[in-house]
Every structure is written in structure tokens, then in C-alpha cells.
Amino acid sequence: MIETIILAVVQGIAEFLPISSSGHLVILGAMMNAAKSNAPTLEIILHAGTLGSILVIFWRRILDLLTSDRRVIPLLIVGTLPAVVVGLTIKSQFGWILKNPMLAGAMLIVTGIMLIILGKLPTRQGVYRDMSYVGAFVVGCFQAFAILPGISRSGSTILGGRMLGLKTDDAVTFSFLLAIPAIGGATVLTIKDLVDELKAGHQLAYSPIELAAGAVVSFAVGIIALKWLIGWSRQERLHWFAAWCIPAGIVVLGLCFAGLVQP
Description:
The protein is mainly α. It has one domain (2-257). Helix content is 73%, strand content 0%. The chain has helices at residues 2-14, 21-32, 40-57, 59-66, 72-93, 101-120, 133-145, 153-163, 168-199, 208-234, 242-257. Helix 1 (2-14) packs across helix 3, helix 3 runs antiparallel to helix 9 (168-199) and helix 5 packs across helix 9. The protein is globular, with a radius of gyration of 18 Å. The two termini are 26 Å apart.
């Protein structure tokens, strides 16, 4: 239960703050020797919890998509395509990459550099509703890059939107609207892994009570983290998280080279 709650807190915080949830879970799992931390069932629950956070915070924008802003839906589809192609390829051919703590540590440093670049971009006034399909695809490529553990999905897509001329608030909004199909798709793929486990006769690594606790914690922490990110983005402070990502990445690489964390 303690392990579940720790992983749920990390997922809830790092899914939305630009510090990479996948990287932190990979690193934390390796440091805790938590073989169960990569269990498909837990991944489903934690992602479902954070997906619920997005639905709660952005429910009005989502409602607008179904009524007055229907043009944004094709933009989200186009923006999701790169992550689908890259994600399926990596998952089927290079799955070990997604569980490598040394790679996660290195990519945390890259995330920190991206955040520093984000902090140096000039203020723009573009809105996501006016984005072109090419622009949506480009932001989608930034999201596909974030499939690597240690690359922040939110930080990468917000940077992509800002580089294309979106104002910060719209870059953040488009980033998390884009997260709905991305996280939903990842959840579907993980459900497939779970079904394969059950068909093979494997027992679930976590009890129903542990899974319920993980869902509730990741949902509640996710809401707090998402509100935190929105507030800091409006104050142009997202680059401050580089002060966490870069030192953390260096420490993780040091632990890997010292043999204290197994790659």
C-alpha cells in the first residue's frame, strides 16, 4: 500500500508538472527495486486517475469541443498521430527503452534544457483554435518525443505550442487537451497488456484496495498539480522546474554509473 501511494503521488505530480512522470516512475521503481511498479494494472489505474484530473479541470473546454469549437477536434486527431506511430513502434520493437533509468536520467537533463529555452521565448498572442493542421502535427511531434522516459510531455508540448506562436495559456490548454487521447490511448494499450497477463494465468500484482487507493491519490494530487502548473504558466515560471530536472538527472546518472541504480 505504501509503495502504491508513493507511486500515485509521483504520478499525480509529475504527469502535469513539466518534470516527466514516466521518467520519475522508472527511476523511482529502480531505486525501490519495485518490480511491481511497472505492472500494467497499476499503470492503468494511475493514468486513469490523472486523466480524471484533466477532465475535471478542463471540463468546460471539453464541452466547448463538442459544441462550438468542433474544429479543434481534427487538430487533436492530427496532433495525436505522431505519438501513436512512435509509441506503437517503440512499444513493440524497443520496449526496454521505456524502462531504462539511465536513459530517464539523461532525458531529465534534456527536459531541463527545454524548459530553459521555454523561459527565453518572447510573449506571443496566438490562440489554439486558429492553429493550422501543420502546427498541430508539429506539436504532436513534440508529444511523440516525450514518449522517451525523462522527457516531460507537458513541457515538450507547451514548448512546441509556444514556438509556433501560441500564448502561454493557449499552449497549456492545447497541451492538456492533446493529453486526453494520448493518455487514453496509452491506457488502452496497457489494458491489452493486462488482458495478456490474465490470459497467461498471472495473478494481479496489486489488490483491489491498493488499486483504488492509487486511483484516488493520483486523481487528487493530479488536480493540485494541474492547478499549480496553470498558475505558474500564467506567471511565466515553468522554466523554474529546470532547477529540479537538471540536478535530478545528473544525480540519477551518477547513481547509475556508481552501480547503485541498475540500468
